[in-house]
Write a structure and sequence with these properties.
Layout (H helix, E strand, L loop, with lengths): L1 E2 L6 H17 L6 E4 L12 E4 L2 H9 L23 H4 L6 E3 L11 H16 L4 E6 L12 H9 L5 E4 L2 H11 L4 E3 L32 E5 L10 H17 L3 E5 L6 H11 L5 E4 L5 H7 L5 E4 L2 H9 L4 E3 L4 H9 L16 H13 L1 H15 L6 H4 L4
Parallel strand pairs: 1-4, 2-3, 4-5, 5-6, 6-7, 8-9, 8-11, 9-10, 11-12
């Protein structure tokens, strides 16, 4: 059972796909279930089952009799878990739980989100189901006096998973400093790894990718994030994009504004309508799924992105990125690929739009320098993969 994914976030959906693919390559006859928080999905498109694991369902499972899990010992190997069964009956029969969250374990999240994350570990521990927490961001853990008790609960729970992969050194240091975990490991983002993804391992024959058709040429993808257009930052962000679009127009680049998540569509439309008069800007008004996005990104010379997952998927395809995000994860990702000069924390008070414009002009002038550095760094990254943890399973 895979937990922590979210189809509204295409990066999260991509992580689910990659884990399903890796499992099928190793354990072709295993049954895989995606535990979602009440999402509406077309099950005919996927080769994995769906389990609605809401907070209420978690509570029911945690109250269930642990001996129910013994039924898996008597189940025939080819006997599937019925989709009609209650979640309380299904989950104790799981033989592995994998968490693919993005950044849930932090004091920046609501208590409800943190408790949902912790409940999945509690379920695994209660029914003695092995658990792996795949590469993700952790921390900070700056809980208030009223919520400090969470640290005690986490200390009891975080020793249970077989392995916890921290994606950033910052998160590794936070977890080790607070809890001293002996199951903690470091790993890069799983989407950086070229795992020769096989679509048939994840999607059924009914799935057909549908990508926008764009002409060959000097194309640049711009992927905004609505977080950067809050009331406090909107004016600064609009001025930044104005300068970027002007530089791209002067550099004779054709710009495609791409919506990574449905929540960003209004911002994408606003940018397209505000700067359409430059004559080199088009809007891709379809939210691409991970397979479509990975195929589509190959059509661009480079990418300008405020979405972490889009940056990772661009690097996966050796595409240079002007990173316009915020926080340590963008900084560490840029450093990992030797792209420090192309990373800007656009929500920081000292962020200067002219500096961003200068970096873009350098990228327009010499994209091959950034691309070669990415290709060189990726050779080392792909020699160490978090997926080796699956080979440690004694199935």
């Amino acid at each position: 059972m895979i937990v922590g994914a979210n189809f509204e976030d295409k990066g999260s959906q991509a992580k689910l796909y990659v884990v399903v693919d890796e499992l099928r390559k190793r354990f072709n006859d295993c049954e895989i279930y995606y535990a979602h928080n009440d999402e509406q999905l077309d099950g005919s498109l996927y080769r994995f089952g769906k389990i609605s694991l809401t907070k209420k369902a978690q509570s029911q499972v945690l109250k269930a009799n642990p001996l129910a899990g013994i039924t898996k010992l008597f189940r025939k190997k080819d006997e599937g878990l019925s989709g009609d069964k209650d979640v309380v009956d299904i989950i104790p029969q799981m033989e592995l739980i994998i968490d693919v969250s993005e950044h849930s374990l932090t004091s920046d999240r609501s208590m409800a989100e943190i408790e949902y994350y912790m409940n999945n570990i509690k379920i695994a521990k209660k029914f003695k189901i092995p658990m792996i927490i795949m590469p993700q961001a952790f921390g900070p853990f700056d809980f208030s006096v009223d919520t400090m008790y969470i640290l005690g609960d986490l200390k009891d729970l975080l020793f249970y998973p077989k392995a916890i992969f921290a994606r950033e050194q910052y998160g590794y240091d936070e977890l080790m400093g607070y809890f001293g975990l002996d199951n903690l490991r470091r790993s890069t983002d799983m989407l950086l790894i070229d795992n020769s993804f096989e679509l048939t391992n994840v999607c059924s024959r009914f799935y057909r990718p549908e990508m926008p058709d764009i002409p060959e040429g000097d194309n640049v993808a711009v992927i905004p994030n609505s977080v950067c257009f809050s009331k406090k930052h909107s004016e600064h962000s609009l001025d930044m994009y104005k300068k970027l679009f002007e530089s791209l127009s002067y550099g004779k680049k054709h710009v495609y504004i791409v919506c990574q998540n449905s929540a960003d569509m209004d911002v994408c439309k606003e940018l397209a309508s505000s700067f359409m008069q430059l004559g080199n800007i088009d809007l891709i008004d379809k939210v691409l799924d991970p397979v479509e996005f990975n195929m589509f990104i190959k059509k661009f010379e480079f990418v300008i992105s405020s979405h972490y997952a889009a940056c990772v998927q661009a690097y996966r395809n050796y595409k240079p990125v002007l990173l316009l995000g915020t926080g340590v994860r963008y900084k560490e990702l840029a450093e990992l690929l030797g792209q420090e000069k192309l990373n800007f924390d656009i929500l920081a008070e000292d962020c200067n739009n002219f500096d961003i414009q200068d970096a873009l002009n350098e990228l327009i002038k010499e994209p091959d320098i950034a691309r070669t550095r990415i290709q060189t760094r990726m050779l080392d990254i792909r020699n160490k993969t978090c997926f080796e943890i699956f080979d440690e399973l004694k199935w």
